[in-house]
Amino acid sequence: MRRRLIGLITLLTLAAVPVAAAQEKAATKPAKDAKPAAMPKAKQSAEMAKAEKMFAGNWVLDEKFEAMPEMGMPQAATGKGTETTRRGPGGNSLISDMKSTSSQGPFTGHGVMWYDPMAGGYQATWCDSDSPMGCMLNGTGKWQGNDLVFEFDAPMPPEMGGGKMHMRESYTDIKPGSFTFTIASGPNADQMKPMMTIKYKRAGK
Length: 205
Description:
This protein has helices spanning 2-28, 46-55; strands at residues 57-65, 77-87, 93-102, 105-116, 121-128, 135-144, 147-155, 164-175, 178-186, 193-204.
């Protein structure tokens, strides 16, 4: 009797194995019409929403350049230009295109700014028609009160003496229809001199 009972249990167990395997396979097999999960779309960060509100749009530029004999600019100069800054992909960058003309001739520039939470501030890169290196990174920008300030050491090309120069780029006096952009430079943070001042005025939508 015990042998018959053990044999019956064994038979039922063996019969249950393929059924359980089939059920497991059916559970793990994707449905015929199932769609793959979509990648979540990036949401605009609060930091980029703030920057977009302040800087996106069409601008008219009034430029002032200081005399810098050591950099091949013996006399001060002025210029006029325009710049368009628009939202980048996903709203997490700002893309700027600039054109201007001064006594130094025509000038074009292209910049991208974004917020890097790992760096704890804004990052930016700038390319222009006057730069022998083509483009440069502008360090990390942070809010200092109502001003956005980038401070960094920039490598100088051989034709400008090589080495590095300490740079400070500041967005100040920010209002809904205007702001001021300045660049200062020097051998270190304690010996900075103004290089240029650009007044931005909103041109409209």
